[in-house]
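Run log // design_07
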């Protein structure tokens, strides 16, 4: 444990790992996802994680394209640790407002805590969070999340991570969010309910 904490025990290190679980990200995207981490602190964590071979950088598209950070094969082995720590932290006291919630954080929560009926028909959802598009697929009770547009979608949902987190916590908040305009939805309401609340 001490050796592991030497690698990922510094403040923000595991949150960086969490943010990279679903998709590689640029420095600016990590800054947006972790607004309470200063640029210098985030740069330090990225350098340390790269030095320890938990993450690495690669260029997008061409050698002149932007760089993204992504988990190495060894870094990806931290996923069950991050998920277990997240589950444990659910019962911790809530931090004072204002708080932030990243898209990755709420998508990991959705993937791990949604309990769709395995016998229910499959669902493909186009989910837009803060301008980024995700494909959420439910089949045989299993929830998968991928970055990017689905080929086809049964339902489409547009909101922000914090509102989606509220919807997952309180099924009764959906009507109010639709009325208020913090959620835009197209498709079968029963399919949306199955995605968010199971059954």
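design_07 sequence
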């Amino acid at each position: 444990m001490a050796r592991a904490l030497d690698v990922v025990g510094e403040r923000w290190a595991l949150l960086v790992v969490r943010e990279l679980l679903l998709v590689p990200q640029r420095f600016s995207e990590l800054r947006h996802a972790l607004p309470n981490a200063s640029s210098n602190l985030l740069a330090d964590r990225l350098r340390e994680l790269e030095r320890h071979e938990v993450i690495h950088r690669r260029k997008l598209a061409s050698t002149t394209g932007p760089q993204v950070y992504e988990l190495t094969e060894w870094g990806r082995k931290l996923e069950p640790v991050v998920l277990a720590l997240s589950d444990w932290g659910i019962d911790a006291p809530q931090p004072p407002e204002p708080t932030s919630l990243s898209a990755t954080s709420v998508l990991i929560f959705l993937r791990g805590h949604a309990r769709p009926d395995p016998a229910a028909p499959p669902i493909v959802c186009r989910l837009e969070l803060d301008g980024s598009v995700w494909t959420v697929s439910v089949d045989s009770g299993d929830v998968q999340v991928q970055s990017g547009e689905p080929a086809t979608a049964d339902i489409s949902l547009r909101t922000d991570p914090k509102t989606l987190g509220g919807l997952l916590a309180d099924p009764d908040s959906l009507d109010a969010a639709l009325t208020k305009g913090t959620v835009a939805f197209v498709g079968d309401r029963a399919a949306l309910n199955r995605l968010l609340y199971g059954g």
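Residues 175 and 183 are 9 Å apart (CA to CA).
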